[in-house]
User: What shape does this take?
Amino acid sequence: MKVVLGTLFGCLSAFVFYLIFERIMQYRRKVRERESETGNRAGEIAMRVKVKLGREDISEEQRNEEMERLVYEEFDTEKHEVLAISLETETTAVGICCFLSDREIEFYWEKFPECCVRHRDGDDHIARNMMAAVSHWATKWTMAEAVNFLVRSRELVVLVSKGTTRQWRQIDQYEKRHSFNFFIQWAENFICDEVAGEELWEEVVAAARMLANSTEAEVDDCWENFPVAHWRRRRVRLQGENFHCIPHPGEVTPDVSETEATVAALEADLAVTNSLVTL
Assistant: This one.
């Protein structure tokens, strides 16, 4: 009986002691938090930040909204993640690549080489543009945790996702060489993991469509309503070798740069010949 009563009263005493101890610890924790907040407010250092906005004729409300957007970035991340898309017409290839951790956007607007247009087989220009984008940006995707890539062909998404097709092997060689994770989706019906980033995905698709249906002179007009228009943006140029990652029959049209170099060399030879004739 003594043992049972001792055990019972001991447990009861331990429970009461735990309740009292927990209340004391909560009180001390709240006191420390209040002291910490008071100390932070007392030790705040005012910092003057000069922000130069692109337009000078905007209202004060618009200026405040722009500054808030510069301070709080909704779409960036500390991880090396990429959002990219390739869209095309029968003659024009367009690609956009958003480097989320760097807050940087690269894009291209190119005409398909004449040989690729002349020897086009069905919808192979869609895969050709995709591989042109992958081959160009693969080195910058090195060690990326996720490269979310959008294309306009559902059939191409299925072929790349199978894991046994030629299209999959072409992507896989770049994925292994540069150690990035490639996730392809259909631009018309994609799944964005984070709801906050869905607006960016939608605007990337809209901007790519505008680029694909624009002339080269209208390229800069497609970014007015882009949600991260203040990010660094740079146009890049693709080479013929990027478009010929997928081979086609017939002769390959030389790059414009190669043609210009050949013409310059011929002009130089002609000048030397003329000078010798004059002598």
Summary: The first helix runs from residue 2 to 42. The mean pLDDT is 80. Residues 83-245 form a domain with the Nucleotidyltransferase; domain 5 fold (CATH 3.30.420).
